[in-house]
Design a protein that fits this description.
By secondary structure, the protein is of the alpha/beta class. It is built from 21 helices and nine strands. It has a five-stranded parallel sheet, with helices on both faces. β7 (about 165) and β8 form a beta hairpin. α10 (about 280-290) runs antiparallel to α11 and α15 packs across α16 (about 400-410). The longest helix is centred in the middle third of the chain and has 25 residues, at about 295-320. Ligand DLZ binds near residues 9, 33, 104 and 105.
Length: about 500
Amino acid sequence: MPTLRLILGDQLDINHPWFRVADEDHLYVMMEVLPEATYVTHHIQKLLAFFHAMRTFAHSLARSGHRIIYLHLDAPDNLQDFGDNLMMLIRKYNITRLEYMMPDEYRLDEKLSKISGNLSVEVNVYDTNHFLTDRYEVQRFFEGKKTFVMEQFYRYMRRKHGILTEDGKPVTGVWNYDRENRSALKPGIPVPQPLLFSHDVSSLETMIRRMNITTFGQADSRRLIWPADRTEALQLLGFFLDHLLPRFGEFQDAMSVRSWSLFHSRLSFSLNTKMIHPGELVSKVVDHWRNHPEIPFSSVEGFIRQVIGWREFMRGIYWHAMPGYERMNFFGHDRPLPGFYWNGKTRMSCMRHTIEQSLQYAYAHHIQRLMVTGNFALIAGIHPDEVDRWYLGVYIDAVQWVEITNTRGMSQYADGGMIATKPYASSGKYIHRMSDYCSGCHYDVSARDGEFSCPFNSLYWHFLDRHRERTGTHPRMGMMYRTWDSMEGTERRRILRRAEHCLEHLEEL
Ligand code: FAD
Ligand code: DLZ
Ligand code: SF4
């Protein structure tokens, strides 16, 4: 009697022990189902990239001799539900045992354990080996501590895995080179063209349209640019090592109209679908640096910190704090998300560039997500549910465990500071320093009030002013409150009036 093994759309890890030997006893199943395609409105490229990668993975398993059933979204026998489909297959193939790997999202974890409880067959759940930590390692690490400080966890990870350490100490004597990762892109610095793939997935798009699935964003489905499998994910990694890593650190926080991805790796989709493993990625980066010692260490350390630090930390906080995390709203923000998030039609140049490229490529890099669209939503007081819905739909790498912690936590501070050490709120000054957006803007970044003043400026002070009770005593906000208090009363009133005007006319900004 065969065992049925479910593979989810973000479990495309060909190196998992499950796939070592092909045999008759294991029947694999992958399924495209409507609830996954519609639990949020997805960017069309996200749907295309996930389904294409899932189909490619199923083909490669079949080619290596595994028995696999793949349910297409429009297959007549697809019951459009994980549980119903599993039940149907269990009956059809006289299955006696179901096995699945722990899902990374709470929603599916709940669903699969409920389904398992209703089945008459034995169910085995496997850990995935997809991360460097288990689900609750972050929780255990911070047990008894008052706050979750990513830097402490990051050092623990460096030591535990012996990454760029010697005798438990950093090889260079310094743990963190964050201070060296803050340059704006200077004119004349060449930025490589990103490596783009070109998959014809037009038949997939036709299927999605025929099934009336609501999507947003653009796609040229004859040339889908995202990797379809591990081979392509490794090509993307090779391109990153050869062309982008040397300047990754220096320009990690830069933003520019000249490039939509600058020196970023664009490996998040490959990592989150498990085409590549974070441990393997880090080893390759370290080996490459050892063979090319001219690459600045700050680039190597900065990149590794994102992967073994932030990424694993976010996953741990997710499993520690769900499901309550989904409802957190520390500031009580309640405004709807302005329409321009969905179409890019705004006169704010930084927002227009970030949103337009998100709609065009389903991608924006970290500082655009945090300090432009995220920052705006925070200081404008948008409801975190609305912000989450947008971020969970728009990006190619958006899966809830890493989306919600970054959005609700890091960017909106809706968790009251579990993840971020202070709210990532800023005026236009930061965007001006780190980008070339402001020179082409309808608004004046140096003005705080008046019709043409940068909305980020007045909204920033309005945010501080209206949340004084919640953030006024925060040690890292003290200087900003002192600056605000030192302004003349008339000026403060003018700024707040301008902010009120912006808030009343958000859609027209
Ligand atoms: P690089 O800059 O090349 O970084 C390398 C890798 O480090 C990334 O691929 C990613 O796996 C990891 N990484 C970097 N920063 C973070 C971080 N803050 N948290 C977790 N991992 C990180 N990342 C997602 O994978 N999915 C999301 O849905 C997502 N939503 C975000 C929402 C907001 C509001 C913010 C501020 C950040 C979000 N991030 C998300 C984190 C980060 O912005 C992306 O991982 C990154 O931009 C992906 O591009 P890249 O692969 O070129 O990254
Ligand atoms: C993102 C996604 C989409 C759009 N559709 C499916 C699907 O139809 N079937 C599936 O197994 N997985 C899909 N995925 C990825 C899942 O949402 C993913 O398995 C969860 O993010 C679990 O972490
Ligand atoms: Fe953005 Fe303000 Fe600069 Fe315009 S002036 S690009 S709105 S920061």
